[in-house]
Amino acid sequence: MSNIRAKLKKWYRNVHPKQALQLIWKISSKRIIISLCLILIENACWAGTVYSLKLLMDQFAGGQARLNRDAVIYYLVFAASIGVLYVCIKSVSAFVSDSLASRIDCEIDEQIHAHTLKLDLSYYEDPAYLDILKRAREAGANKPKAIILSLNDLAKNSIMLVAMIYMLIATNWLLLPLLCMIVLPILFVRIKFSDRQYLWQRDNAALERETTYLSHLMTGDAAAKEIRAFALGNFLLEKYGKIKHRLVNELIQLEKRKMIVEIATTLLATLAFFSVMAVIIMATLKGKASFGDIAVFLVIFPQSFSTVQGLIGAISRFYQNNIYIADIFELLHLKPLMNAAGEGNTNAIRQNPPHIAIENLSFKYPHSKNFVLNNISLIIPPGKIVALVGMNGAGKSTLIKLLCRLYDPLNGRITINGTDIRDLDVSWYRRQVSVVFQDYVKYNFSASDNIWFGNIQKEREPDEIENAARLSGADDVLKRFSNGYNTILGRTFDGGKELSIGEWQKLAIARAFYAESGLIILDEATSALDAFSENDLFRSLRERIGDRSALVISHRLSTIMQADHIYVIEDQKVIESGNHTDLIQRKGRYSKMFSIEHA
Length: 599
Ligand SMILES: Nc1ncnc2c1ncn2[C@@H]1O[C@H](COP(=O)(O)OP(=O)(O)OP(=O)(O)O)[C@@H](O)[C@H]1O
Fold this sequence. Notes:
With 599 residues, this protein is an alpha/beta fold.
């Protein structure tokens, strides 16, 4: 007994019925009430039809002599009318619950996306989070709808079963325990296998993610070139096939075991049903049942089988889908780790041009043992172009992520006009920085959108968009297209125009220029620009920044030479700093890095 109770408790914990119902109720309580009312009316109509048929049949029990013709016609018309109503309400009810389910699916899918956008970048360092995200997105795509539909079936079949139980008891009370004997084993088997299937999927989420990744590589356009150039197709396909086959085989084995146990329980159920039928026939032969009872039984028998099956299906589907809902809650319960709502006075900061200082800053990535930056200090004064130089992996891009407050440092701080950026509202602070990441995004939207995204909080200003494009050199590229700034870029959508890497870079720089930020950061953003474009860009950058500042990362001497001040980073520290001439004269790491011959 205690074992059963423990199992029930475990099931309850797994399915989160209260949370799932609360979530669904919050989204659309009105529609749920309408749907439930329709189900009630539908079932009342069905029971009314069956009961009026019983009353109709009872009229014939006394033979021709005692037949009341008016009553026969009355019950017949009544049964027919209510039967027609039943059919109509049934269709409306199915439509209402289906549309309710689709709305809820859509809403929860949106909640998942909205919540994901609130989470910090550091979550993306953790494969466990990526598994949670994958499971939640999959569950969010269809499980809420499936829950609503199973709840609908559950409500419908339960009400129908109550009516049937009443009629069965009225016919013969022994039918009730027999019915339970049929229902419970099937229910038990389905729930048990739902659990197993869920656990199997949970355990294999990482492998599923690997197949998704491989599939993207093989079918997406990002890797299409390299895969063909290096003939990687067969290798990837084999790897993909191995994992897929393993997963499919395991799933088939699980389904096979389920099928065997289901056959056994369904056989038992069918036997029990025929026993029920025998009981009814015996009772009728002994004269313990009326004609009406036999008619009721004849209607109920096929109906009760499908109701019980429907009920079991609904309960097990409700259970099964609910365990997947746990994945959605697991994601929705994750909280942003960073304090985003600093209350520092932004007005005071705005009164002066931005002076950024990095003070004794140390940082290592979450889940990583080694420090990437260790006790590093530097300043980015207003009106100056500052450059960061260092070998690959020196930590330059990491410093930029910290400057954008995508991560917080472990020690030390970053200040803007003397205020620690952690004390500021994160969205306000991020608007003070515009950045072109090394792996900037090529948005497959219009060219105008690509630039406007630099300051989406502001109404789109076509003149300013064009101005930003002129400064970055993107204007010349876009003018070539007949649709100009409205041209859709990239190959994802019909009629999209693809740009060269350098042209995409110009567009990304225009996006950063469009922002009204105090600090512009270019991380290897000019690597694909030709020499003329690069020169023009730096002229524009000086013109654009005024008393604002710029931080540039590059491995190209032609870019770095343009900076007012250069920091050389090595071994997680700043090892040299000064302007180009100072650093050359010092004959240190900087001059070696660029192989500059000394006089
Ligand atoms: N998301 C991450 N999680 C863990 N470690 C990371 C992550 N990103 C970078 N690193 C590690 O941090 C170190 C610094 O990387 P970073 O990208 O900042 O270097 P970089 O100086 O910009 O290099 P490059 O010149 O090649 O662009 C590297 O050793 C890298 O392996």
